[in-house]
Amino acid sequence: MTERPAQRTPNRQLAALIAEAGFSNAGLARRVDQLGLEHGLDLRYDKTSVTRWLRGQQPRGTTPALIAEVFTRRLGRRLTAQDLGLDACAPVYAGLEFAATPEEAVDIVSGLWRKDSGSHAELRKIAFTPAGLVVPSRDWLIGRPDEKVARPGQPSPGLPAPLERRGVPAVPAQGRPAAPGLPAAPDREGPPPRRRVPAERGPGQKVTAGDIAALRSVGELFRSLDDAYGGGHARQALVRYLEHELEPMLRGTYGEQTGRRLFAAAADLTRLAGWTSYDIAAHGLAQRYFVQALRLAQVAGDRAYGAYVLVTMSRQAVYLGHGREAVQLARVAQQGVGTSVPPVVQALLHAAEARGHGVLGEVRACTAALVRAERALEAARPGDEAPHWARFFDEAQLADEFGHCHRDLQQFRAAAQHAERSLQLRAPAYARSRLFCRVVLATARLGLGELDQACQLGVEAAGQAAEMRSVRAAEYVRDFERRLEPYKDAAPVRGYRDKVAALG
């Protein structure tokens, strides 16, 4: 007897979401195809494909995650394949979750480190999604602090608990009686034998103050390399360090205070992994690192650092042209810390908001935010306590923010004045920031009709960019070159092209 094929159940969850989003079947198929192209996939779905999904057919491969992302972008809330009545697949969008517990946060971020370390080319294709900013920033703002972070030590499997725990008094090591079948411990004079220290850390080992100090030092090292040579220079080394050194610490043993400090260091290093990913244009991967850094900062109980992570996310949104999201992230950061942070941190938060308004062309709002940033920095005193991550925000950085904002608002004379001031004040170690500021100055000179000076500055910036592994640096130079197009036949522009071509 021939067996009849199983009857499929219509997908009512998908149908309801299509209605809520206002999609036609063809419209949904088109959006899935477009999103697939962002990931290098040639999918070619059509309205008939969607009809089959509604009848209960399960799409294959990564398509369920792509469909979920289409709805996430449309509806402004995070949706999974299961929310759409579809089978889960390889989590293309894993890493955008704001974990419910510290343990889950460790699982998510360590999974990112391992995937990035093993196959970073695949992760670098993941697209940035503005909708993926909404839920994490909201959950950070309204979320409650994690009550327990400590991971107490556990006895090794197969070994008895220490005698004290079993109610047997401890016996001093010197002259203690022999256990059955073992020789007695001899009385010793002089130092005890040296304990063998394992060469590599394994999960379960105790985290020490020295471990935390080492993590901070590693962060400073990689930050310096990033500032001077670009994010692509040592990014993979940083990710491997996170996988092989930091993850075992997070899965080690520690008390409450040490645990909070450990998660603070983990948040800082994870943000830095995101920052270096952002600098090489791996924007979807960077976004995931930032979201996880935000969650780790919450485990640490470090509200100010969480605000700094949101500012970092705002910077990326500005760079990608998402001004509205950039402003919202900066405002969430401000709301999350209020006036409890030092003036330098307040200045940093207001400057981030100004950059978002600048991209949007909102002159009054941008100017007001810049004024708030300036007043906050003026309120800072040399002896004030400032977090180590905020110390870069000084007069040179504020002048840089002013220069970028005035450039975006096409106020070129003001942009030139502030960019020149920033270059005068900025330390040489911040080579990439100086390059960005030089391009801002070149653009301002171009806007003022000073073509010779603009091209000279542009050549200097192009030479610096050639020495760095930074997609952002190269893109700043390309943006300047696009602005040169109307003057392509002028002698200074021809000279610029010849000099840049000679750089190779």
Which segments are poorly predicted (pLDDT under 50) over 5 or more consecutive residues? 1-6, 155-198
Into which percent range does the helicity of residues fall?
55-70%
Number of strands: 0
Task: Decide which structural class fits the backbone.
Answer: mainly alpha
Helix and strand element order:
HHHHHHHHHHHHHHHHHHHH
Mean pLDDT: 86
Features:
504 residues, mainly alpha, 20 helices, 61% helix, Regulatory protein
Question: What can you see in these coordinates?
Answer:
- The chain has 504 residues and is mainly alpha-helical.
- It has helices at 12-21, 25-38, 47-54, 63-75, 102-123, 134-142, 209-229, 235-250, 256-279, 283-300, 303-319, 323-337, 343-360, 363-379, 395-408, 412-425, 431-447, 451-466, 471-484, 491-502.
- The chain is globular and about 70 Å long.
- The protein has a domain at 12-84.
- It comes from Streptomyces glaucus.
- This is Regulatory protein.
Q: Strands, helices and their partners?
A:
Layout: H1 12-21, H2 25-38, H3 47-54, H4 63-75, H5 102-123, H6 134-142, H7 209-229, H8 235-250, H9 256-279, H10 283-300, H11 303-319, H12 323-337, H13 343-360, H14 363-379, H15 395-408, H16 412-425, H17 431-447, H18 451-466, H19 471-484, H20 491-502
Helix pairs in contact: 2-3, 2-4, 5-8, 5-10, 6-12, 7-8, 7-9, 8-9, 9-10, 9-11, 10-11, 11-12, 11-13, 12-13, 13-14, 13-15, 14-15, 15-16, 15-17, 16-17, 17-18, 17-19, 18-19, 18-20
